[in-house]
Amino acid sequence: MSTPPKRMCVSPSFDNSFEKRGKKISIEGNIAAGKSTFVRMLQKVSNEWEVTPEPIAKWCNVQTTENAFEELSTSQKSGGNLLQMLYDKPSRWAYTFQTYASLSRVRSQLQPVSPKLREAEHPVQFYERSVFLIIKLSFSLLINGQQMCLAQCLFESGDLNETEWAIYQDWHSWLLNQYESQIELQCMKRLHLRGREEEQGIELEYLEKLHYKHECWLYNRTTQVDFEYLKDLPVLVLDVNDDFKNDKIKQECIIDKVKEFLSSL
Ligand SMILES: Nc1ncnc2c1ncn2[C@@H]1O[C@H](COP(=O)(O)OP(=O)(O)OP(=O)(O)O)[C@@H](O)[C@H]1O
Ligand SMILES: Nc1nc(=O)c2ncn([C@H]3C[C@H](O)[C@@H](CO)O3)c2[nH]1
């Protein structure tokens, strides 16, 4: 009897091993806590670290799909500023904003990994806020000990009504479940200093609420989360009250803490 043909021995694909080697870190924190500044600093630390910034440009200039405006002139193509619309009239635009923000986050977090990172021995992907804003997060680096629950805040202030909140949670959970295996993740002074026009009307009360939400979510860990395992995800709290932007020694100190955190995972 002839021996049966040998089965192809499929070694674990490179992609799988990347998934095993790689770490995904979400950088969370209040508005203008310093997340972008921090991730820009991280980007320079190692070739094995890559950063996915928040897709804010998309929110400030919402475009229709390419084909849809083939006939339009450049000025007609210019999109609406949804972030401005949100802050001008939250009761009208909160739902639209949350929907679009989630969609654009999922999209950017599903971007293929760069070849350079794929080949790295200890690849780390940092996300400036994750799609798991309130529902899910993995390893988190927390800046200023605050939690971000923006959508929930809008619901509590009445800018999202019961129906909108229910619909938002329904499709947001669905979306996360769909992509779970692929996206496993893991103030006022600075806000004015940065001077982003859309945000100049934000009130201290809103930032305080966000601060409290961050505390409950990532520090006290009292926010209800969808899955049991999320309760125990490691969180690193960084105090960024000090200005590290122009201080090499402070930067090194923070980076050392990040490295220590990564090696403990
Ligand atoms: N450690 C720091 N010390 C002093 N100023 C800082 C520090 N980190 C950031 N800033 C300044 O604070 C402002 C807000 O910082 P940044 O844009 O990084 O915040 P963010 O958390 O990314 O904001 P957002 O929530 O809007 O995305 C900027 O003007 C920045 O230069
Ligand atoms: N309501 C709300 N929901 C979100 O998911 C969300 N993500 C970001 N933002 C706002 C905060 C900054 O002004 C600005 C840049 O972070 O965008 C959000 N606002």
TrEMBL record:
Per UniProt, residues of the Deoxynucleoside kinase domain are 25-262
State the InterPro entries in the record. Answer: DCK/DGK, Deoxyribonucleoside_kinase, DNK_dom, P-loop_NTPase
SUPFAM superfamilies for this protein: P-loop containing nucleoside triphosphate hydrolases
Q: Entry's Pfam families?
A: dNK
UniProt similarity note: Belongs to the DCK/DGK family.
Protein name per UniProt = Deoxycytidine kinase-like
Q: Which organism is it from?
A: Huso huso (Beluga)
